[in-house]
Amino acid sequence: MYAVVSSGGKQYKVEEGQVFRVEKIPGEIGSQVSFDKVLLFSDGENLKIGQPVLDDISVQGKIMEQDKAKKILVFKYKRRKRYRRRQGHRQPYTAVKVESIGTSGSLVQKPETDIETE
């Protein structure tokens, strides 16, 4: 069972028990988080695709870590002009462990009835 969720302008394919990194979201370590923008859901047999999102599916997770990624260097250079600029950047992220993927409420389906015509 997996789902594709959208968070921070990016899309992530997640499964139950998986730990994945998203753009920093507010919250303490150990607190619950819910992703409601589910774009795709598969239970192994059936595939549901949202247009644009699935309203009845949500992904529940737990915040495992609030940290910064490894440093990257941004280096600007213009030849023959004695221009050099070096700058570092560390992007903050949140590590989330997926606990459950499923319906965000109870789904009520209408029973199919056979109408007899005379």
Q: Please, could you describe this protein's structure?
A:
- The chain is an all-beta fold and 118 residues long.
- The chain has one domain (2-103).
- The protein contains no helices and ten strands.
- The chain has strands at 2-7, 10-15, 19-23, 32-35, 38-42, 47-54, 57-68, 72-78, 83-89, 92-103.
- The strands form three sheets. It has a four-stranded antiparallel sheet, with no helix packed on it. Strands 3-10-7-4 form a four-stranded antiparallel sheet, with no helix packed on it.
- It is elongated.
- Mean pLDDT is 90; it is low at 106-113.
- Keywords: Ribonucleoprotein, Ribosomal protein, RNA-binding, rRNA-binding.
- Belongs to the bacterial ribosomal protein bL21 family.
- It comes from Desulfonema limicola.
- This is Large ribosomal subunit protein bL21.
- One of its GO terms (molecular function) is rRNA binding.
